[in-house]
Fold this sequence. Notes:
Elements: E1 2-4, H1 8-19, E2 29-31, H2 34-43, E3 49-52, E4 54-55, E5 58-59, H3 61-70, E6 76-80, H4 85-93, E7 98-101, H5 104-108, H6 110-136, E8 140-145, E9 150-153, H7 155-161, H8 165-170, E10 182-189, E11 192-205, E12 208-217, H9 219-265, H10 273-297, E13 305-307, H11 309-323, E14 328-331, E15 341-343, H12 345-362, E16 367-374, E17 380-387, H13 394-397, H14 417-427, E18 431-435, E19 442-449, E20 475-479, H15 483-495, E21 499-503, H16 506-515, E22 526-530, H17 538-548, E23 554-558, E24 573-576, H18 581-591
Parallel strand pairs: 1-2, 1-3, 3-6, 6-7, 14-16, 20-21, 20-22, 22-23, 23-24
Antiparallel strand pairs: 4-5, 8-9, 8-12, 10-11, 11-12, 13-15, 16-17, 17-19, 18-19
Amino acid sequence: xxxxxxxxxxxxxxxxxxxxxxxxxxxxxxxxxxxxxxxxxxxxxxxxxxxxxxxxxxxxxxxxxxxxxxxxxxxxxxxxxxxxxxxxxxxxxxxxxxxxxxxxxxxxxxxxxxxxxxxxxxxxxxxxxxxxxxxxxxxxxxxxxxxxxxxxxxxxxxxxxxxxxxxxxxxxxxxxxxxxxxxxxxxxxxxxxxxxxxxxxxxxxxxxxxxxxxxxxxxxxxxxxxxxxxxxxxxxxxxxxxxxxxxxxxxxxxxxxxxxxxxxxxxxxxxxxxxxxxxxxxxxxxxxxxxxxxxxxxxxxxxxxxxxxxxxxxxxxxxxxxxxxxxxxxxxxxxxxxxxxxxxxxxxxxxxxxxxxxxxxxxxxxxxxxxxxxxxxxxxxxxxxxxxxxxxxxxxxxxxxxxxxxxxxxxxxxxxxxxxxxxxxxxxxxxxxxxxxxxxxxxxxxxxxxxxxxxxxxxxxxxxxxxxxxxxxxxxxxxxxxxxxxxxxxxxxxxxxxxxxxxxxxxxxxxxxxxxxxxxxxxxxxxxxxxxxxxxxxxxxxxxxxxxxxxxxxxxxxxxxxxxxxxxxxxxxxxxxxxxxxxxxxxxxxxxxxxxxxx
Length: 599
């Protein structure tokens, strides 16, 4: 204890009373002025201070204030003389723990008063620390008494509920705290629903039992979790689509090839020729849908191709009209454009259809969707998708390309469409921008580099052009694990005049090549191989040929994009399944060397 008392007699009586205390042993240090007290408090730690307000160097309430500033974390008990009553009451209001009279009765109760003062001070300090922790916590925090009345609320909780402190403290909070340690509640803030995770704990608040409720806003994290689940669903769809695409494209190849065989046997206009042509068109549309499903359901990068956007938009027109309701009018570019762009066709379709779906959503009451093409610039091509819908608020225009940002209701949009469109265009060297004047709908403009005309491999070959030159027919090794597809491709090649040797997988093809001897009279002129086969894939076969017979032409046929690209060992040609006979023959005509004699 530190006793600050300038009267020697009063100091003696106080020390004597503390020395006779039975409840606790007191160690007392005495000083006679405020200056000495400040020195003593600086040099040693004390559990409590007993202060006389009438000191030689300080008097009245000022003595308490100056000492409190020096030791804010030590309880102070006031010893009051007859003339110090007003100052003593003021000290109590400003934080003194107790006031005792210097009379005999006051000094007699000094030990008990000091112990009580220490307990109260420690409790008040703990409350102050707890309140500071709660106030500064980034999570919303509430303190309620045993009856559920709110005793304290921090700024984060006020922000979560969207009300001021006075309103919050004067109203019911809208939900009750049960016995569960953790739960979730829905909060309506400014017309929008927020989800908060609530954790409960029991504490003491100002000496009374209370409940501390911690509220964490989990609205965004729940939304992100939902988006992640949607992305995982898309990934699962992609895996499923990839698993069946190979077999499905083989089926389409058989349908397409046999329909062409039927058409070969029929004269133009003969009964059955129209039906065969319809089968061919249906197979081609099914092949396009398969490619689009693969592009939409997974992130695999398809192979860029050179094509005219005007023709691609005309091709997409029929599909777009099927997804638009009758009250939305569609306008497409008129005439035949000549500009060329280089981008994966399925990726191009994905961008256009995504913008179409957004436009349809923005026109629930009908309207007009206009897709226009501008080829006037020498180095770029511009495609605009404009609707007459509700438009995009100005505050959202800068955010619509952010991943997972969406203005649609929960469960109706993932917020991934526009960011994906921007990524696709960026990868192709282009860009996308959005405009939405007030009351004028929305317009998305795509800009892509304009490509110089180039003759693609095999371009210029026609269906009626015989691929082999006069003389012994070129020998083609066909590796295909699907029996029907193998038979259809071989039949097409044999009808075109080629000599075909077939293999059921890459390992069998490798054995046939090795058995044929060195390249020459008994060798093969070209290897045609499926990409996905048991035992040895077409990609592995291509790598082996690149090492052992780099001059032997090789054509890889595939219905997927994941198994091609890296690891082919050398520049190789790729033909997508399902393909028409004319496309296959044109590619072979470009790959095979000139007339060969001696076979």
